[in-house]
Write a structure and sequence with these properties.
There is one protein chain. By secondary structure, the protein is an all-beta fold. It has a single domain, classed as AOC barrel-like, CATH 2.40.350. Helices cover 3% and strands 72% of the residues. The protein has an 8-stranded antiparallel beta barrel with strand order 1-2-3-4-5-6-7-8. The chain starts with a strand and ends in a 5-residue tail after the last strand. The relative contact order is 0.20.
Length: 146
């Protein structure tokens, strides 16, 4: 199932790490937000999914890097009970630019499963984030029930 997404996120709790000996600055923390999923298959569901993410952003002598894990609450889209319908994604930043107060991240990830309808799901995602507002899409492959 191909889909598009848009939405936003913000940092919740975060921790900054500075190591001048290693010339490294890092921020690790929790992201929270919501994305609107629109599935492109005929009659596909549309709706909001809240996201939680643990993320690590590092600036080192080799340049910036970003990686983490996302969890999506898909029950608002598929009609399942709250607390079910989770979807999990592992991601990293492919491109990062900083121009004044404008921070742009291109994030790419792979789905590696979930719960309920999404147990065993796989797929990919590519999102461009500008100052915490995201646009992009990907593909989701659900487990064959047979």
């Amino acid at each position: 199932m191909r889909f598009t997404v848009q939405g936003g996120y913000a940092f919740g709790v975060s921790h900054d790490i500075t190591d001048f000996d290693q010339l490294a600055v890092a921020r690790a923390g929790q992201l929270t937000g919501a994305w609107r999923f629109e599935f492109e298959d005929e009659g596909g569901p549309t709706g909001n999914a809240h996201l939680d993410a643990s993320t690590l952003f590092r600036l080192t002598r080799n340049g910036p890097s970003l990686s983490g894990l996302m969890r999506f609450h898909m029950h608002e889209i598929d009609g399942s009970e709250p607390g079910s319908g989770w979807l999990y994604l592992s991601y990293e930043g492919g491109e990062m630019t900083f121009e004044g107060s404008k921070a742009t991240f291109v994030v790419e990830g792979e789905f590696f499963g979930g719960t309920g309808r999404y147990e065993g799901a796989t797929g990919s995602l590519r999102v461009t984030s500008v100052n915490g507002f995201d646009t992009g899409g990907g593909e989701l492959i659900l487990r064959d029930e047979n």
